[in-house]
Amino acid sequence: MRIIFRCDPALIDRLERPAPARMMLPDWLRSMPSDAFSHVHDADVRTVKQCPPFVDAMAHGFVVTLPCDVTVGQGRLSWDWDLPPLSVDSHPRSPISFHVPAQVTGTPFHRGDRAIVKFNSFWTIELEPGYSLFATHPVNRDDLPFRLLTGMVDSDRFTDVGILFPAVWVAQDFEGVLPKGTPVAQCFPVSRAPLDLAFEAFSPDDSRRYDRTARMLMSTKGLYRKSLRAKRPRSSDKGVPQSGEIEP
After folding, report:
1. Which domains, from first to last, does the chain contain?
2. Mean pLDDT across the stretch 57-74?
3. Residues 6+ positions from 115 with CB-CB distance below 8 Å
4. What is the pLDDT of residue 243?
5. Cα separation of 6 and 163, whole Å?
6. Beta-bridge partner residues of 117
7. Where is this region: Disordered (predicted)?
8. Which of the four pLDDT bands, split at 50, 70 and 90, describes residue 236?
9. Which of 80, 127, 173, 237 could disulfide-link 131, Cβ–Cβ 3.0 to 4.6 Å?
């Protein structure tokens, strides 16, 4: 899957580049213990750090990040980001803009005192024909003070301007700095091919395999990770700095 990112020529060497999500895993995942004591079991149990589905979801696709530091305080968002003259007059120059709360009236997100921010994208995104871009809140990142509203864009056709990522500001008491490089959206291509849903009863062989695999999952530590999980291919990562990663 080839994904092409483009930006104004004046920004090509200044912007934070979207990065493979596996390279943007949070520090808390890296530092958390692999096992923790459970009072229910009166023994140590494996934490989600050892759960491949949990980590694989966080490592899937690519992440769009903040292009500069954003300071949050006294109900205001501010930044000091000196951009050069751009080649496009209608191009955004601020990292964040806003929606009015009325635009989510009737949704669970609506509250009169809750801001709806909009993370501006300085990159356009082009996918291969037949694919849309699924954009959602960075997976399992409840530590962020906002919640991105999930959306899907036909980025094989909508390729001329950047995508805007709206989010609900949920941490009303948050004050501090969202640093440059903070993940704001996790994205991945999805096919628009229609689904073909089929429903069948277990055959005798299905039942035998179910029972055998269930017993092995209970008796063999790490069976899914070692024997059933598909190997993840590496992204090309052109122009992206390298970092450590979690191997579930």
Report:
1. 4-35+51-193 (2.70.40), 198-233 (no CATH)
2. 96
3. 98, 101, 168, 169
4. 36
5. 12
6. 98, 167
7. 224-248
8. low
9. 127
DSSP letters spanning 183-227 = EEEEEEEEE-PPP-----PPPHHHHHHHHHHHHHHHHSTTHIIII
Cβ contacts of 110 within 8 Å, gap of 6 or more: 101, 104
User: Would you tell me how many other CB atoms lie within 10 Å of the CB of residue 26?
Assistant: 16
For 89-117, the DSSP string reads: TT---SSEEEE-GGGGTTSTT--TT--EE
Confirm whether pTM is higher than 0.85.
yes
- Which value, to the nearest 10 degrees, does the dihedral of the CA atoms of residues 231, 232, 235, 236 take? 0
**How far apart are alpha carbons 123 and 5 in whole angstroms?**
6
Percent of the chain with pLDDT over 70: 94
Joined together, the tokens standing for residue 82 give 């000196």
Q: Which residues contact 71 (CB under 8 A, 6 or more apart)?
A: 77, 78, 79, 176, 177, 178
| Of the ranges 41-50, 67-76, 201-210, 220-229, the best mean pLDDT one | 201-210
CB proximity list for 1: less than 8 A, separation 6 or greater: 127, 128, 131, 189
